[in-house]
Amino acid sequence: MKKSVLIAAVVASLQIHAVCAQSTTSSTYPIRPIRVIVPGTAGSSNDFTVRAMAPRFTEAWGQQIVIDNRSGAGGVIAHEIVAKAAPDGYTLIFSTSAGLILNPLLSKTPYDPFRDLAPVSLGSINPQMLFSHPGVPAKNVPELIALAKAKPGQLNCASAGTGTPNHLGCELLKALGGINFVHVPYKGSGPGVTDVAGGQAQFMFNSIPAVLPLTRTGKLRALGVGGPKRSPVAPDVPAIAETLPGFVCINWYAMLAPTGTPAPIINKINAEMVKMIADPPFAQKLLDMGSEPQSSTPAGLAAHMRAESDRWGKVIKSAGIKIDR
Fold first, then answer.
1. Which position has the higher pLDDT, 6 or 226?
2. Tell me: the pLDDT tens digits for 262-271?
3. Contact 296, 121 (CB under 8 A)
């Protein structure tokens, strides 16, 4: 009897200690620098966004945010690092829709975003822009669809490579528009944009910041944007959804932590992100970079990831896209 009482007392003590430790962790967090892994190179859209956030976190918490760019293997390396990191809030990832959704759908990855990563908040979205060579006899999406129907299989849609967001934009346009054209994958978006500007390919999807200056100088023609509505970055360009209801093709960026990170820490990071994204000067800074500020709750991000996985999974299956890594 005495032994069982002693065991019960020890268990109770350990439980109380665990609760107190978690409370202390969440109330004092952070007490040292936080590393944020970025699955992209310095200067990429998600890198720009998280570097704009870093000073805000430091100002609020008094701790340095260390940006660690890991661009290898299409972002797989970055996600694997975070998936295996200690769930203490000191290793985070500012990830992309490609890394979280497209990569796991297209090939076997050493991480499962739904099992290994804990959602914190959305950070920003970058709708894809559909653009063409100025010589293509189509000034908008309806005219491009009509042209493609008149010339089935004769137009080329460039992309940064098979399975990339801009490739999937091509496939979604093909499916919803009921048209047929040729997908031409390049080794990166830069060569694709160059060939569209040179007339070797007719049209392409790419992030707005990368091509908006070229559309304003007349080297490219903006046909539509992939958000559900017009972008405040390019308000004069119609949303493709105005012609093809349900068309959505955006890159989005979000903060996540290793699964098992205490909820109070997740919520503390989320609250700071929601606060900064709602701040007009900070939001304008993102808009000036070509990104649309957008936050969410952790549960909202989880639901968004599930919906995106379901949506793009159908497109990938229908188009028969596969990648061997």
1. 226
2. 999 999 999 9
3. yes
Residue type, 107: S
Tokens 């796991």, located at residue? 104
pTM to 2 decimal places: 0.86
Determine contact, residues 273/290, Cβ cutoff 8 Å: no
Separation CA 220–CA 212 (nearest Å): 9
Could you read off the pLDDT of 258-303 as tens digits, one per residue?
999 999 999 999 999 999 999 999 999 999 888 899 999 999 999 9
> Which residues neighbour 23 within 8 Å (Cβ) at sequence distance 6 or greater?
264
Q: Would you place residue 11 in the very low, low, confident or very high pLDDT band (cuts 50, 70, 90)?
A: very low
DSSP string covering 77-93, please?
HHHHHHHTS-SSSSEEE
Is residue 285 within 8 Å of 52, Cβ to Cβ?
yes
**For 23, phi and psi rounded to 5 degrees?**
-60, -45
Which H or E element spans position 165? helix 165-177
Phi, psi of 101 (to 5 degrees): -115, -55
Report the percent of the chain where pLDDT is more than 90.
79
* Residue whose pair of structure tokens reads 């979604």 in the numeric block: 172
Task: Determine how β-strand 91-96 pairs with β-strand 156-159.
Answer: unpaired
Which pair of structure tokens corresponds to residue 41?
Answer: 């190179």
Q: Which residue has the higher pLDDT, 20 or 269?
A: 269
> Is 50 exceeded by the pLDDT of residue 69?
yes
Q: How far apart are CA 286 and CA 292, in angstroms?
A: 6
CA distance 173 to 192: 18
Yes or no: say if 123 and 245 are a contact pair by the CB < 8 Å rule: no
- CA Rg value for the chain: 22
**Cβ(249)–Cβ(169) under 8 Å?**
yes
Residues 44 and 96: their CA atoms lie apart, in Å, by 11
